[in-house]
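Attaching the record inline, Q. Sequence:
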Amino acid sequence: MDTILIVDDDVAISKLLEETLTGEGFAVRKAYSGTEALMAVAAERPDLILLDRMLPGLSGEEVLPSLKGIPVIVVSARTDTMEKVDLLLGGAADYITKPFRIEELVARVRVVLRDRRAPQDESRINCGDIAIDCNLQTAYSGGKEVKLTRTECAIAKILMNNRDRVVAKLTLLELIAQDTPDCTEDSLKVHVHNLRKKLKDISGRDCISAVWGIGFRFTAG
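Structure, as predicted:
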């Protein structure tokens, strides 16, 4: 069951969306401010966010950059075309204007979730609460991000694509060879250690474990 986070300080609209989406088979959580939204995402990563622009405290525009890796549909009464363009270029998956027909909003939610499940560019990998962008060599989790080295990114890509399975050291070295030909069995331990620390710093959990004498495993959160 997909989980949708509704971020809107209008209690009536929030309740309407909750009742509709629950009836459509979605799990729903709610936040009424930008700060509360970031706390909700840090506690449990949703599959999609409906984000109002005009929020108390942090606005929708201010919150959006911290939601990388999560599809966001911006919901707003503002109709300025360039503002819509800026938000879409800034990372929003879609934009719907208030007042809206509830059937249209549900349809947009389903389309965004469907597209999310479609085959993705291999440069972008999502695994539980962590996402990496190999083109940018950056990892994201809970609104935080950290830069990775080329070798760390190559290791993360293999381990995340084999989540919850042990990848042998020699297998890992072989698979990352085309991206990082200079990595050796001795230096691999150092790269994995550094990657493990970076991911723990942004996610708050130790997602990479060493299996003694065999290799490494990434555990999805």
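The chain has a mean pLDDT of 86. Residues 123 and 134 are 5 Å apart (CA to CA).

More tomorrow.
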